[in-house]
Amino acid sequence: MAAVKEQNAELAPSIGVNNLSYAFPDGSSGLKGLTLDLPPGSRTLLIGANGSGKTTLLRLLSGKRMAPASTISIAGIDPFTSGLEGVTYLGLEWVLNPIVRTDIDVPTLLSSVGGDYYRDRRNELVRILDIDLAWRMHAVSDGERRRVQLAMGLLRPWRVLLLDEITVDLDLLSRHNFLQWLKRETERRACTIVYATHILDNLAEWPSHLVHMSLGRVKKWGAIGEVDGGGAAGQVGGTTTGNSRLGQLVLEWLQEDLDERGPREGRGSEGKTYESLEGKGGYGAESR
Ligand SMILES: Nc1ncnc2c1ncn2[C@@H]1O[C@H](COP(=O)(O)OP(=O)(O)OP(=O)(O)O)[C@@H](O)[C@H]1O
Predict the structure, then answer these.
(1) Does residue 226 sit in helix, strand or coil?
(2) For residue 190, which of 11, 81, 109, 143 is within the disulfide window of CB 3.0 to 4.6 Å?
(3) Backbone phi, then psi, for 199, in 5-degree steps?
(4) Sequence-ordered alpha helix ranges (H) in 36-141
(5) Residues paired with 163 in a beta bridge
(6) Side by side, which strands form the sheet with 87-90?
(7) Residue 220: which region, alpha, beta or left (left: phi > 0; alpha: psi -120 to 50)?
(8) What's the gap in Å between 226 CA and the centre of ligand 1?
(9) What CA–CA distance (Å, rounded) separates 141 from 242?
(10) Is residue 73 helix, strand or coil?
(11) Which of 191, 114, 103 lies closest to 145 in space, CA to CA?
């Protein structure tokens, strides 16, 4: 198992940033002299105040904004000039896509982004994100909608995932399960994650690297433990602060609620699962 993890980590893309400065079209300065070297298979948390430049950096890494030549390389390739395959950026624009507010059902939506092809991933994401296949998207809550969006965005097996806080609508247990799934992805596949977030609950064991951004600069970065002298895990999500103790308590409450509810099958959701739909000759059955 350890050997598999190491092999996956070696094959995953590295992310390099070399003295990157960026000015917005209006001339204002966005980033100043950033240098980073995030290793293959790493899970990096981008930490910084509102306006510190996290989104700007992620958009540059994704190739959505053009960085000066030779300042960014992903697996050795400039993402803007070479249009890298396998880089998934999930941020605000993606969240605002109107399709997920129309009167459309979940299986059709997932099918439209390759769900029938990536069947195992689709079923796993539906389970991990606790999605009800009977939902219609014009009549779900914000968090339910976000879960379906996440399943859509993560379905294709990305090699680099750039997440700009898109878990704000998830309840504590859903977010916890989602973050654990992301961690497993980096352990079983060759992939690398950069995640900008303000929500540090349940993240103690998650990151391999931290980047601290302030006013368009990187103030500190490195492997967790090097950056903070080994203290961040306790502060971020351990049992040393009142906030994380509260987080733990809420997590347990939600888990109890879920346990009381039991599995979806047989309660109010028409008993729908992908397995049952396929068994009844429903979605995707003919392509089996
Ligand atoms: N298109 C733009 N033109 C000019 N300035 C911009 C533009 N977009 C963002 N900025 C400015 O750049 C700075 C960095 O913004 P950015 O969105 O990268 O911050 P952030 O760290 O992601 O913040 P948050 O935590 O609030 O999401 C901010 O001060 C913002 O006002």
Answers:
(1) coil
(2) 11
(3) -100, 110
(4) 54-62, 79-82, 92-95, 106-112, 119-128
(5) 90, 195
(6) 87-90, 160-164, 192-196, 43-47, 209-214, 217-223
(7) beta
(8) 28
(9) 30
(10) strand
(11) 103
- In ligand 1, the atom with minimum distance to the C-alpha of 57 is 18
Quick one: DSSP state of residue 176?
A: H
Hey, what are 208's tokens?
A: 């391999």
Please name every residue paired with 20 in a beta bridge, in sequence order, or none if there are none: 34
CA nearest ligand 1 atom 2, residue: 24
C-alpha closest to that of 16 among 88, 85, 72 = 72
Contact 14, 40 (CB under 8 A): yes
Give the rounded distance of the alpha carbon of 81 from its chain centre.
Answer: 24
What local confidence, expressed as pLDDT, does residue 270 receive?
66
Check pocket membership of 48 for ligand 1, CB cut-off 6 A.
Answer: yes
Tell me which of 21, 46, 55, 89 to substitute to probe ligand 1's pocket, judged by most ligand atoms within 8 Å of the beta carbon: 55
Extract the tokens encoding 86. Answer: 């396998």
Q: Indicate whether 287 pLDDT > 50.
A: no
User: What's the pLDDT score for residue 193?
Assistant: 96
Contact status, residue 166 vs residue 95, Cβ threshold 8 Å? yes
Which band of pLDDT confidence, cut at 50, 70 and 90, is reported for residue 10? low
